Amino acid sequence: MNSKPSLLRYVAEALVWCAIAAAIYVLLVEAPPGLAPPSPDVPIDLGVTALPHYVALSLARMTLAYALSVIFTVVVGYAAARNRVASALVPPALDVLQSIPVLSFLPAVLIGVLTFVPGRPGLEIASVILIFTGMVWNLTFSFYHSLLTIPPELIEAASMLQLSWWHRLTRLELPATIIGLVWNSVMSWAGGWFFLMASESFTLANRVYALPGIGSYLARAAGDGNLRAVLAGLAALIAVVVLLDQLLWVPLVVWSRRFKIELADTADARRSWVLLSVSRSRALAWIGARLMTPAMERLDRVLGGADARRDAPSALGRAAHFVGIAAGLAAVLAIAAEGAVSILRLVIHLHSAEWTAIGFGALVTTARVALALVLTFAWTLPVGVAIGLRPRLARRVQPFVQIAASVPATALFPVLLLLLLRSGGGLGVGSVALMLLGTQWYVLFNVIAGASALPRDLQEAVLLLQVRGLTKWRTFLIPGLFPFLVTGGITAQGGAFNASVVSEYVACGGRTMQTVGLGALIAAAASAGNFPLLAASTLAMAVLVVALNRAIWRPMARLAHERYHL
């Protein structure tokens, strides 16, 4: 990461902004809602007997979205960290994309998919894409920042050993990022559950699109004010979260701890009955020895090769490569510029009152986000460090943390809103509470991951030197956690702005309530099909988030890369 932004980065950011504007214009204006076929009639059964089927459908969508997120993370994050052109294009693109709320993706995704794949299959594809947008960004940021903070002596050792890109990826880079990826995967699933209600039940231009699933079940129950169905849906969701925690996440967290970069060989107090069962299984051992190991060895030979060195391309080849890239960028820039001009023509017709509402709403929402982040860091830092440094405590607490992070706060919001209205707080205070429920977990899981990755030998040195209190935080904990805090802060900020869309505009019990804010404008515009206001509000939120990232988080990420890494 360069100390100063290069000209290439500025050009890349301009290109990304133009491309985003072009995409919004094409999908919101050139493909109007009339092109999207009506929703198939899929009634949502609020009976308890329908829950197992709905949970299975939602779990299948989540699994597919997570698989796409991991593929995207490894490919895009690796390119951003190791390729000069991608390093200029990807970070600003991620800044913009993670700043766009799920409900702003909704019209573009729904219209675009249903135009080409009408009916139930199109709705399924749209739902998976929307869940993907709620899962992928924190994974990609974690992987990208972890690659940038790999100890330089390990990178030099890989270069001296002349490792191929494949061996370097599988022997050094993936192991160095595993802890952050595992904990951010837990967060991604929690975020997927959180936005599942908005990803399975859509309202666009006063037209309802719904898919059978636990998210649409909770959305319908909350909208009808059916407390019994809400409690039944939450019970089913909590049961699935607990099963996933025991069968998947606890084994992965325990397994990931073997990749800590440390000198001391320490016994980990944490165990997993699933890992013990797997290690003792003769059938799995036979499959590993006869199938998996030969397959991986063959893959190593094909992708790694015996010699990592490549012949340098000729001058003619370099010239052709450069001309191809330049021609491609010129074509993309021309198309993106046309789209940017078109969307400017669209939003320029908004009335001054609407622009005033966007500006004032942006200020109010930013204030709520700032308050939510302050409250988040205030409690997640001490709690996350305590969990990450104590494996026994993590074993007891992790299931409860994952359950709390996975429960859609929008399903609990009718009860919370009723309490706030009775106490005089109103939706203005309630929106901060809901925003906090949706974003604090990004920081907590990254703090836990960072504390878990702190080398045991350094912990013992701090203990022997009797470094305590504020000195310990200032000289050891904060510097050691700093890269993870940056990742958590960036994704929590984006998540807070995303959560503003569902926290400032709430429908429950047949009533719709909203407060002043940019999120409320986006939700109301999406529901009413007011695409000029939706486009302007979405671009305003993207500009706001990217400006905050440029002013706050990007300098901190540069500091983490240059100074605060082990």
Please give a structural write-up.
The chain is mainly alpha-helical. It has one domain (8-270, 346-562). Helix content is 80%, strand content 3%. It contains 21 helices and four strands. It has helices at residues 7-30, 51-82, 84-99, 102-116, 119-148, 152-160, 165-194, 196-200, 214-224, 227-256, 273-280, 282-304, 315-347, 352-389, 391-406, 409-423, 426-453, 456-464, 469-503, 518-528, 531-562; strands spanning 201-204, 207-210, 505-508, 511-514. Strands 1-2 form a two-stranded antiparallel ribbon. The chain has a two-stranded antiparallel sheet with strand order 3-4. A hairpin with a 2-residue loop joins β1 and β2 (207-210). α5 (119-148) packs across α7 (165-194) and α14 crosses α20 (518-528). It is globular. The model is unreliable at 1-5, 31-40 and 306-310 (pLDDT under 50).
Number of β-strand runs: 4
Q: Quick one: biggest sheet?
A: 2 strands, antiparallel
How much of the sequence lies in strands comes to under 5%
Structural class: mainly alpha
Strand order of the largest sheet: 1-2
Outline the low-pLDDT stretches. Answer: 1-5, 31-40, 306-310
Average pLDDT works out at 78
Principal-axis shape equals globular
Count of the separate structural domains: 1
Distance between the termini: 17 Å
Which assembly state applies to the chains in this document?
single chain
Number of helices: 21
Compute the CA-based radius of gyration.
24 Å
Order of helices and strands: HHHHHHHHEEHHHHHHHHHHHEEHH
Share of helical residues: over 70%
